[in-house]
Design brief:
By secondary structure, this protein is an alpha/beta fold. It has 2 domains: 5-159 and 297-365, Response regulator (Rossmann fold), CATH 3.40.50.2300; 160-290 and 381-414, Rossmann fold. The protein is built from 13 helices and 14 strands. The strands form 4 sheets. The chain has a 5-stranded parallel sheet with strand order 2-1-3-4-5, with helices on both faces. Strand 3 (110-112), helix 4 and strand 4 (134-135) form a beta-alpha-beta unit. The longest helix has 21 residues, at 56-76. This is ABC transporter substrate-binding protein.
Length: 415
């Protein structure tokens, strides 16, 4: 974050800035450390972000999206909004401890989630037990919504079925005579890994040959067998949802083994800016579905762009990180909910979440009672790494940062 005095003064409305938190807490600029009590004229929101640990490459971007959203909420809502945010260290147990401390020390009206199915489901379970409305993004996994009878959890984020549908849409951008015919799916050995692979296979098998579907272990550092199997199967379009670290490792090994499919989609793996930092031009052409991508228009996208550039002083040639927009979208849902709720009582907040259509930087949508976005309402935008930035390539939009889909991948020897 910037260290300018103007940055600090713009955050002055938030309580407790600079207050030292309990042991292990991060005191975040623009947020309070855990501690102190809420008041009747203050809306208190608590959450965590992964500023350290295995998901740390995404944590600051998530924090900044939340901060910009809270700044907007304080400008638009009648009550002051206080954000209580801490580092969950990319660990589910740590996240639960942080949220428990937040709720113990504050009159919390709403909870916001962290990053990944692992951390968001942990936060959701806590919220369900406490009976506090919970919003979570970076969480495409649908099955918990269906299995656990969620009453308080809402996900303003494209889910596995939306990701599969947008993959089909991306493929249809390619002229039919040039379109890949063989699909390979690398399936992480996780619940979401299986779910996403199932949706991809169901969505694509009628028009394409699913030539390969093989599992790998999360945390694996050796993708050579999958690469060899993909080459033997003639895979032209490779789909997977690895962790960010796993995706980068796989990409490096694909280069060393001279495997360059015509299309590569690494959902979540290619999301963070660390992708380009680690791979440079070798990371070009990769696509992802991070929830929000520069190039989308309407529903506050221009305000988001202007606010971020003003707050963090980035150049005109730099694009916003995708997680900033994804998190900012969550704050828009929170603002529209609180603005239309009769009170901040949990039942009143939940009633608005279940009944209202929301308009955010990722689109217009409403929720099913189980917290899923209603089927078919959200288009999962596809981003593509090109010249150091992530640009919208699907759907076809006219934002300044949108580009035509770059296809096929350039072979390694020609880069």
């Amino acid at each position: 974050m910037t260290d300018s005095n103007s940055h600090v003064s713009r955050r002055a409305y938030l309580k407790g800035v600079g207050v030292g938190g309990a042991a292990g807490m991060s005191s975040l600029s623009g947020c309070t450390a855990f501690g102190g009590g809420g008041s009747s004229d203050t809306i208190t929101i608590a959450g965590t972000v992964p500023l350290t640990g295995s998901f740390s490459s995404i944590g600051q971007d998530m924090e900044r999206g939340y901060e910009l959203g809270v700044q907007r909420m304080n400008e638009n809502l009648d009550q002051e909004v206080e954000l209580v945010l801490a580092d969950d260290e990319s660990d589910a147990d740590r996240l639960r401890n942080q949220l428990n401390q937040a709720v113990s020390n504050n009159d919390v009206d709403m909870l916001w989630g962290s990053f990944s199915s692992l951390l968001v489901t942990a936060g959701s379970a806590f919220a369900e037990n406490q009976g506090i409305p919970f919003l979570g993004v970076a969480f495409a996994y649908m099955q918990p919504h269906l299995d656990r009878g969620y009453e308080w959890t809402f996900a303003p984020f494209p889910k596995s079925r939306d990701v599969a549908r947008s993959t089909a849409g991306l493929l249809e951008l390619i002229p039919e005579e040039e379109r890949p015919s063989t699909i390979g799916i690398w399936e992480p050995n996780s619940g979401w890994g299986q779910e996403q692979a199932d949706y991809w296979e169901e969505e694509l098998s009628g028009d394409y040959d699913i030539a390969l579907r093989e599992k790998f272990s999360i945390g694996s550092q050796d993708f050579s067998t999958l690469i060899s199997q993909s080459k033997s199967a003639g895979v032209e379009a490779l789909l997977s949802n690895p962790t960010p670290g796993g995706g980068i490792t796989a990409m490096k090994q694909m280069q060393s083994n001279d495997f360059a499919p015509k299309l590569l989609k690494f959902v979540r793996g290619a999301d963070p800016s660390a992708w380009w930092s680690a791979l440079g031009q070798n990371g070009a052409f990769a696509t992802m579905c991070p929830g929000w991508v520069p190039g989308l228009t309407g529903n506050g996208n221009s305000t988001l762009d202007e606010s971020y550039r003003s707050e963090y002083d980035i150049g005109d040639d730099q694009l916003l990180p995708v997680q900033v927009g994804t998190s900012y979208n969550l704050t828009q849902v929170a603002e529209q909910t609180l603005a239309n709720a009769e009170s901040t009582e949990p039942d009143a907040v939940r009633e608005v979440l279940r009944s209202r259509e929301f308009n955010t930087v990722i689109g217009d949508f409403s929720f099913e009672n189980n917290g899923l976005p209603r089927e078919g309402q959200l288009t999962a935008p596809v981003g593509q790494w090109w010249e150091g930035g992530q640009h919208t390539v699907y759907p076809d939009v006219d934002g300044d940062a949108a580009i035509d889909f770059k296809y096929p991948l350039t072979p390694w020897g020609e880069r």
